[in-house]
Each structure stands twice: as C-alpha cells, then as structure tokens.
Write a structure and sequence with these properties.
about 250 residues, alpha/beta
Amino acid sequence: MALVQNNIVTILQDKIKMIETEEGALYLVGPIQLPVALDGETIVFNWYCWLRCKEVTDSLERMIDKLSSINLAEMQQSSVLVYGDFADSPEAWIRMHSICHTGDIFGSKRCDCGYQLHQSMKMIASHGSGALFYLANHEGRGIGLFSKAMAYLLQEEGYDTVEANLNLGFQDDARNYGDAIRVLQSLRTNPVKLITNNPKKLDALQQAGMNVSGRIALWGDVSQYNERYLQTKINRSGHLAGCPNE
C-alpha cells in the first residue's frame, strides 16, 4: 500500500499547488488536458480545479488520506479552463462565469447563461489566450439551486429576478469572487481583459489589485423567454448594455 501511495504522490506532487488564504488554503490541481467540443471543432483547454480547506498542509500524503473521509460530491468545487500561454501572453481574456444548472446544463432559455458560457469559451480560444473560471458556489447569484427553484416560482407570478431573491430573504447578488481571484493571481500577473456586462465583477478584480486592461461585452441570445430577465439585469442590477467604453 505504501508503494502505491508513493507512486500516487510522485504523479501528483507537481500538479497540486497550495494557495494560502486568511481562513486556510486553496488547493489547486492541474493542469489537465481537456478537449472540448465547440461548434463541431475540438479545442484543447488546460483544466484546473480548486478546493477550499481550513487546514494548511504541504503534505500531499496527508491531503490524499483526508479526501477519502470527506464526501466532496456533496460539496461545491470550482474550476478554470485555461487556453494558450495564459501566464505570459501580453493580453489574455478571462470570464468569471457563475454556474447555472438550468442554463448551462439543460439549455434553459429563461436566462442567457448557457449562451454566455459557450460564447466566452469560443471568444477565448479565438483570441488565443485566456481563462474561463467556472464558479460552482454562485448558483442563482449565490442563493443555491433549491432557492433558485423557489425564486423561479415567484418569477412565474410576476416578480422580477431581484424581487424574487429579496422576497426570499436573500441579497440580490451574494456572489463572492475572492477565491477565483486568488487562483487567477497564482496563474497570471500580467493584465487581463474581462468578458462581462457586470460592473461588480470589474470592481472585485480591481479592488483585489488585479490589473484589468479593459472589458469585453457579452450580449446575445435574446428571446421572448429571457427579455424581462435581461432588462432587469440592466435596470435593477446595473449591468452595462451595449459596447463598453475602453
């Protein structure tokens, strides 16, 4: 058993990085080659995943031993798809994408999340350098999938997205980008351009000291099913419509 453990450590030791935080550490595993189908073409990304832990240890053996006693399948872990020479390229494009179970997986037209996910991946690959951060604890702007389902019921009775969240006792937007920004800073220190319509994402990056050289708008996939949702983003949540001022 010890021999197998040693083999495992040899394979993984250069692929796991510890990023210390105020509350413990983030353990970043990768890169892992991930071929992704985009519009009939296979694009190879480098995939990383990170895990937040209270314990700080540089012992890979201890970390592996502890994982088997934790049901990680019931916990949320975020990850990032990296394309090109992300660390050193002069200009890289990034997207901080909040998980949307209904839009990303089922292809729901009630929002534009699935469109934004795949479009930003294509934009990053076409640009030649960038990263898509997939933030697993951001469902429903941070209220979770079950609460999002209740919010959808309220929306079907006329509440907009903001009103539904507030009437369930949540903030309009409870998302936090701290861990994703720490991972970003561990992968790249050069400037980035952010693919977003949300000024709060820009503010989060800039307040953390990240050099953001510009913004790239990402609008599209407007339909009868999400028109009010998109207008609420602009009118109630402060999202930026049209072309950005760079």
